[in-house]
Design goal:
The structure holds two protein chains of two kinds. Chain A contains nine helices and twelve strands. By secondary structure, chain A is of the alpha/beta class. Chain A folds into two domains: 109 residues, D-Maltodextrin-Binding Protein, domain 2 (3-Layer(aba) Sandwich), CATH 3.40.190; 155 residues, D-Maltodextrin-Binding Protein, domain 2. Chain A is globular. Chain B is mostly helical. Chain B has one domain: MetI-like fold. Chain B is 83% helix and 0% strand. The longest helix of chain B has 35 residues. Classes of the chains: A alpha/beta, B mainly alpha. Chains A and B meet through helix 1, helix 4, helix 5, strand 7 and helix 9 of A and helix 2, helix 4, helix 8 and helix 9 of B.
């Protein structure tokens, strides 16, 4: 009886191991080229789902852009993932061939996981998106304050300094520490939702503290606007609900296209205002090394 | 040894294990409190459900069918971002309320099914022998009820622990959330999530072990 039990457990362990090794896909020569041929030469592309725009709407927009910009976007079949994590699992298990991420994020992935490499596709360089805060529509004062702080930082170059310090000049092994947010007694306090989902902009350190470019930016904004900022760690799927219910006042990395190729408000949910962009980034594609 | 280094980087380095333990503690807290309150609430619900007072009986029936027929995440979102949105009570408390409500409905049903499995004649016999209603329940019904309900209750406990993995949606940093954060930071989702799964598996087996222990003790005493 005992032996039977042990044998069963061992067998299930082996099966689980085999399953995960298969998913890792590291040493398995996946017949990707053949797959691409089978699907009519289309490349399976993973993207992070938008805050608001539906998949159909995104498809329409892609078709439009292809028409106007002559960028062959329809060679991709796009699959949307809820978060970067899931998208990574998607490419590692072979359900997509390439993933679309921002330049800074792509560099972070390549630096931290040697399985990935860049797809050098110059045509994609035409896209760049802006990152901004999103606040509720009735919070006009807050939007004005944030806009003012961002404009000030842009003007005196401290925004560029932060970008350098936290995004472009980061060593692979030296993670910048989490920034202490200044607290002023009696000042107005706002809650900002971070997801920990988009390094190096937004991630949670090993000690459990939110860190990255976004928190550094927040500290600067807090200093300039004289507000107390409280960071709330929240699942990215619940950001919109949290904002509209008033549980948090600001959400991060709402993404806005530059406005020349895609309409600026493609992803703007109802009842939400977006601030001045604080960061601009190109789109890059990553694939697994063969 | 590269793999070990990777594991070290993911799970241990810079106090990462402490963060995981903190997340685990949050998960355990929510589960334990919800289990306690949910079981009490479930017993009450079951009492109403099998009782003779019609309006309460129907109310309990409706409550149980609604809760059992809907995902707990929806209830959690509804309570946190809707009902309790303006009250400012802590997310942890909302989570405990939600999971207690959810567990209550399940416990009520499992108790009712255990009750139905019992032989009615035994209680009647006890009553004719002069036992009071309470004595008959305590001496005849309860010991058998516990015995029948235990295996199902055990899986309800394990289910509850796994359900709590959605609390990241209401700004709570539990074990799942910690694991997701680590996966994003280290860019190694496969290994990290497998690790998280093993931790959940360990908790489940711990629960099974505790139940087994009580079983063995009863056998010894009998």
């Amino acid at each position: 009886m005992k032996f039977k039990k042990i044998a069963k457990i061992l067998l299930s362990c082996v099966m689980a191991g085999a399953l995960f090794a298969g998913c890792g896909g590291g040493d398995k020569p996946a017949p990707k080229a053949d797959d691409a041929n089978k699907t009519g030469g289309k490349i399976q592309l993973g993207m992070i789902a938008h805050l608001n725009a539906t998949e159909q709407k995104m498809d329409e927009i892609f078709a439009q852009i292809e028409e106007s910009e002559k960028v062959p976007l329809t060679k991709y079949t796009v699959k949307f993932y809820d978060s970067l994590n899931l998208m990574q699992m998607g490419i590692e298990s072979g359900s997509v061939d390439e993933i679309s991420v921002y330049d800074s994020v792509a560099k972070y992935i390549v630096a931290n996981n040697e399985k990935y490499e860049f797809v050098n596709d110059k045509e994609l360089k035409v896209f760049n998106d802006n990152f901004c805060f999103a606040v509720r529509k009735d919070d006009a004062q807050l939007k004005a304050d944030l806009d003012k702080a961002i404009e000030e930082m842009k003007a005196d170059g401290s925004l560029d300094k932060l970008v350098k310090e936290y995004i472009t000049d980061v060593d692979k092994d030296k993670v910048p520490p989490a920034v202490e947010l200044p607290m002023t007694e009696g000042a107005q306090s706002i809650k900002v939702g971070v997801t920990g989902d988009l390094p190096p902009l937004d991630y949670v350190n090993a000690d459990g503290k939110p860190a990255g470019f976004n928190t550094a930016l927040l500290a600067e904004v807090a200093k300039r606007s004289g507000k107390n900022i409280e960071i709330v760690d929240i699942d990215s799927g619940a950001r919109a609900a949290a904002l509209s219910s008033g549980k948090i006042d600001v959400i991060f990395w709402a993404i806005v296209p530059n406005g020349d190729k895609m309409p600026r408000d493609i992803d703007k949910p109802e009842g939400v205002e977006l601030t001045t962009p604080y960061f601009k980034d190109d789109v890059e594609h990553l694939k697994l090394k063969k | 040894m590269e793999f070990l280094e990777l594991l070290n980087k993911i799970f241990l380095k810079d106090g990462g294990w402490l963060t995981i333990l903190n997340g685990l503690w949050v998960t355990v807290q929510i589960s334990a409190l919800s289990l306690l309150l949910g079981t009490l609430f479930g017993a009450l619900l079951c009492f109403l459900r099998v009782g003779n007072f019609k309006p309460l009986k129907v109310a309990a029936q409706i409550y149980i069918s609604i809760i059992r027929g809907s995902p707990v995440l929806m209830l959690l979102m509804l309570l946190f971002y809707g009902v309790f949105a303006r009250t400012g009570i802590s997310p942890l408390l909302v989570a405990v309320i939600t999971f207690s409500m959810h567990t209550g409905a399940h416990v009520a049903e499992l108790l009712r099914s255990a009750l139905m499995a019992l032989d009615k004649g035994q209680v009647e016999a006890a009553r004719t022998l002069g036992f009071s209603k309470f004595q008959a329940f305590k001496l005849v019904t309860l010991p058998q009820l516990v015995k029948i309900a235990k295996p199902v209750y055990q899986s309800t406990v394990v289910n509850l622990i796994q359900w709590t993995s959605v609390v990241g949606y209401v700004t709570i940093t539990d074990l799942t959330r910690v694991i997701n954060n680590i996966a994003s930071r280290t860019m190694q989702p496969m290994i990290t999530i497998t690790g998280g799964m093993i931790i959940y598996l360990a908790i489940s087996y711990l629960v099974y072990g505790i139940f087994n222990l009580t079983e063995r003790r009863r056998k010894v005493s009998a």
